[in-house]
């Protein structure tokens, strides 16, 4: 399963970004082997519509789950339409790796 984590940089050791649409990076993690692909968030500096554009980007990467601190209302709608599971409340004090491991342990 591909899990997208909003992140401050493009690695498993990066801190989670608590803002999904304005996150600097998305780290797409393959849950089977923890391999990952970092992706710059092209929506980070958009004037408006960052959430839906960010969802479009992660959907194009094949993400089935998004882990983040917060999803704005437009991002929530776009995630639901895309069929992606959005998990909020992830703390910015933990790493991408910790967020994924925590999510998988609760599954």
Topology:
Blueprint: E1 2-7, E2 25-30, E3 36-40, H1 50-60, E4 65-67, H2 73-82, E5 85-87, H3 96-106
Parallel strand pairs: 1-4, 4-5
Antiparallel strand pairs: 1-2, 2-3
Protein model, in words:
The chain is of the alpha/beta class. It has one domain: Dinitrogenase iron-molybdenum cofactor biosynthesis domain (Nucleotidyltransferase, domain 5, 2-Layer Sandwich), CATH 3.30.420.130. The chain has helices spanning 50-60, 73-82, 96-106; strands at residues 2-7, 25-30, 36-40, 65-67, 85-87. β2 (25-30) and β3 form a beta hairpin. The longest helix has 11 residues, at 50-60.
Apparent shape: globular
Main CATH class: Alpha Beta
Instruction: Report the strand count.
Output: 5
What's the pLDDT, averaged over the residues? Answer: 96
CATH hierarchy: architecture? 2-Layer Sandwich
Work out the radius of gyration: 12 Å
User: What name is given to the CATH topology?
Assistant: Nucleotidyltransferase, domain 5
N-end to C-end Cα span: 12 Å
CATH superfamily: Dinitrogenase iron-molybdenum cofactor biosynthesis domain
Total number of helical segments?
3
Summarize the biggest pleated sheet: 5 strands, mixed
Class by alpha and beta content: alpha/beta
Strand order of the largest sheet: 3-2-1-4-5
List unreliable stretches of 5+ residues: none
| Domain count | 1
The string of secondary-structure elements, in order, is: EEEHEHEH
Strand content: 15-25%
Helix content: 25-40%
